[in-house]
Amino acid sequence: MSDSTDESDAVGTAVVTVSSDSSLEEDDAGEAIVAAFEMAGHEIVTRELIQRGHDNVQSKVSRLVDRDDADIVVTTGGTGVEPRDATLEAVRPLLDKDLPAFLDLFHAISYDELGTGIVSSRALGGISDGVPIFCLPNDREAIRIACESIIVPEAQRLATLASSGTDTDEE
Fold this sequence. Notes:
Elements: E1 12-18, H1 28-39, E2 43-50, H2 54-65, E3 72-76, H3 87-91, E4 97-98, H4 100-114, E5 124-128, E6 131-136, H5 140-164
């Protein structure tokens, strides 16, 4: 995929930052997600900051999946190993299908660039009701790796496959 996307290939992206001690103005990770998708010509249909908490995250992501304009959902934050980090536990039950290759690629690239510190870095990729969902750490470098190297280049194809089952690359 090139740096610009034909308008018909633009993916409606919902961006959610999970944080109890931040604001949208201070949200570097969310801004990095927005920048990566916009640079590729995709549309940000909503950008929100929500409080940590299993039920809060689960209900927000569930509502975003139900939106007609959200083709993909990307969250940042709440993925660490601290007791109050529950984003993955909240989102995982919503998934119909896992995307294990995303996690494998993310960890491989992250290790090459960041080293063993990634051992505490958790992420998730999957499909819920025809919508790809990615849960990323609240770290600008992790966002860069995940979005620029994996998610954005595959966003349009994943959204198409997940919603209609037709791979435009195979036609």
